[in-house]
Write a sequence for this structure.
């Protein structure tokens, strides 16, 4: 496959520098995103998924978070070296984002039309009527019924699913090449989730944008993604096409995660869990980060971090026991 | 995470401050009434005072300054010994209290307008910048606010009156310096929580600059709080003006101001109580009315309560 890579992340390190010590929340993350693909970024809470996304946007939370190392190449250009003004030009037009909670994603004192217009007008100067028309079209594109009426409404007059669609419409109004979706369906109920995922898929097919889809729900991954990257304690431990990850997971953590998803068929038993806690991000072990919870642990796992092993075409895993190909 | 119906923190503050709410709750639990009804009586009182201030020369029956010593200390017209010529009586110099009251409204309103624009505006800007930018800027600005709070306001105003001379300008500066810090502190608190909301992050995702976010996303969200602060502080300003004029640090006599009128009547409160009491009632009515009006305005301005 020779599909154009739109986003390439290499050895990204984002740490929190606190008085108590350094929290290595993102500690050597590398992946690439191709045009028109959906890459799932999966992992448990606190493994650095969201912070990776914020590092890509260069919107780190205030209070000590800094990206200290790595490259984020967006179409060949390392955006970590861009000035704040250049970054503002990039955000919204080349890389955009949808967040988890639609309740707080919209400004409560403006109508949704006003907020869409702001996004459209940042991109180009146009007469008011044309911008209004485009805003209505943007709402129609995200399948909002009666967009002419909805455009004059305030966020509190809409349901969560509808708000999340508006957020989506705003995010893609700049026709970005990359969309980061940070758990966009977590706050929605299940039927609305499915609709939203279908919508995202359709929009992606229409625009050809690449989506970095952050979630902790393997069911959603199977439905949405082309490839998956599994993250654990600040690093991507396994990355590969969805089918391979589901059928032949190489990293014990991935295996444990998949085992803990309830099955729709077969007898109902106790769900598999992963014993223990992930290591403290302030005091990471020298060896494999999953070693303390891994059933297959050996001495070398505790001593040395396993390098990234190629286990198949496009399939890599950070494990001593991965079947190298 | 955040629920849509989460009560607004400033609502709670304003509701606590309003005495009216104790006797007449705006939103009954269960919510059969979503917004308070229009406060016609306060609006009428405010309108009368504003009209008085605007058209003082046309409305006042006498000059507020000219003395008629023959008619001094006459009680209001409805009392024994009162004269039909002076509806609210006269003061120790035989000046018509009604005329002085009408002209006095001017001073009160002008001072309130200027001081709230200056002090409130400074506080609003400082609060937004401090809350949004954070870091060292926030630390410096907030230490300034702390410093402003430690300064005894009355002493400062007296000092200012001594060094700059009495007058409207001095009064406005003194009251502005008293106001801005409390505005800044409350607005900053609001901004701190707004800054964490996702719509601010998404505005940055859209490529909005920091000044633009402060202006178009933060500012409209704190305007409700600002309006409530302004209306609650109209009362504070009127009382501050009266206090400073009473102490002799405000508008110099013989220009009539309500505070000055109380000050002049103070010595004769036992035998000619109306000289001090009538401007006192005027201040009370004015302050109460603007506070009630401010309450209602807050309810109206809240987009969550605005229905189709």
């Amino acid at each position: 496959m020779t599909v154009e890579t739109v986003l390439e992340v290499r050895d990204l390190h984002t740490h929190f520098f606190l008085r108590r010590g350094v929290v290595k929340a993102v500690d050597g993350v590398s992946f690439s995103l191709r045009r028109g693909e959906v890459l799932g970024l999966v992992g448990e809470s606190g493994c650095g998924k969201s912070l990776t996304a914020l590092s890509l946007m260069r919107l780190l939370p205030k209070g000590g978070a800094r990206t200290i190392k790595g490259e984020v190449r967006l179409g060949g250009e390392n955006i970590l070296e861009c000035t704040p003004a250049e970054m503002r030009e990039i955000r919204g037009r080349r890389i955009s984002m949808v967040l988890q909670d639609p309740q707080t994603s919209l400004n409560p004192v403006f109508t949704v039309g006003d907020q869409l217009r702001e996004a459209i007008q940042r991109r180009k100067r146009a007469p008011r009527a044309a911008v209004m028309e485009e805003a209505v079209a943007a709402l129609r594109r995200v399948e909002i019924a009666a967009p002419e009426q909805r455009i004059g409404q305030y966020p509190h007059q809409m349901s969560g699913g509808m708000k999340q669609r508006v957020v989506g419409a705003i995010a893609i109004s700049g026709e970005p090449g990359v969309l980061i979706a940070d758990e966009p369906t977590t706050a929605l109920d299940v039927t609305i989730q499915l609709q939203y995922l279908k919508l995202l898929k359709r929009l992606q097919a229409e625009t050809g944008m690449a989506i970095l889809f952050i979630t902790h729900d393997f069911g959603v991954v199977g439905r949405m993604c082309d490839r998956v990257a599994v993250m654990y304690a600040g690093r991507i431990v396994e990355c590969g096409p969805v089918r391979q990850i589901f059928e032949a997971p190489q990293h014990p953590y991935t295996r444990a995660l998949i085992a803990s998803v309830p099955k729709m068929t077969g007898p109902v038993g106790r769900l598999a869990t992963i014993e223990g806690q992930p290591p403290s991000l302030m005091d990471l072990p020298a060896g494999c980060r999953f070693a303390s919870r891994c059933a297959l642990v050996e001495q070398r796992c505790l001593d040395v971090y396993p390098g990234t092993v190629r286990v198949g075409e496009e399939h890599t895993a950070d494990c001593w026991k991965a079947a190298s190909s | 995470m955040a629920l849509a119906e989460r009560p607004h923190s400033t609502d709670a503050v304003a509701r606590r401050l309003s005495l009216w709410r104790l006797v007449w709750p705006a939103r009954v639990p269960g919510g059969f009434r979503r917004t308070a009804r229009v406060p016609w009586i306060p609006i009428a009182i405010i309108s009368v005072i504003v009209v008085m201030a605007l058209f003082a020369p046309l409305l006042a029956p006498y000059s507020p300054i000219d003395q008629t010593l023959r008619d001094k200390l006459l009680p209001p017209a409805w009392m024994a010994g009162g004269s039909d010529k002076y509806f609210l009586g006269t003061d120790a110099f035989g000046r018509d209290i009604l005329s002085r009251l009408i002209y006095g409204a001017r001073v009160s309103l002008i001072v309130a307008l200027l001081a709230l624009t200056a002090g409130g505006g400074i506080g609003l800007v400082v609060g937004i910048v401090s809350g949004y930018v954070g870091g060292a800027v926030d630390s410096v600005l907030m230490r300034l606010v702390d410093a402003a709070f430690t300064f005894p306001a009355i002493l400062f105003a007296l000092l200012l009156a001594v060094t700059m001379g009495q007058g409207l300008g001095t009064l406005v500066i003194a009251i502005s310096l008293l106001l801005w810090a409390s505005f800044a502190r409350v607005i900053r608190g609001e901004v701190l929580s707004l800054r964490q909301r996702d719509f601010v992050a998404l505005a940055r995702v859209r490529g909005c600059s920091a000044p633009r976010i402060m202006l178009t996303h933060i500012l409209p969200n704190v305007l409700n709080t600002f309006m409530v602060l302004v209306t609650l502080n109209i009362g504070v300003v009127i009382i501050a003006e009266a206090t400073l004029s009473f102490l002799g640090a405000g508008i110099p006599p013989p220009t009539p101001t309500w505070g000055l009128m109380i000050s002049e009547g103070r010595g004769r409160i036992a035998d000619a109580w109306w000289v001090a009491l009538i401007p006192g009632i005027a201040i009370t009515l004015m302050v109460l009315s603007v506070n009630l009006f401010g309450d209602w305005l807050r309810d109206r301005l809240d987009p969550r309560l605005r229905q189709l």
Notes: The mean pLDDT of chain A is 86. Chain A has twelve helices and twelve strands. The first strand of chain A starts at residue 5 and ends at 17.
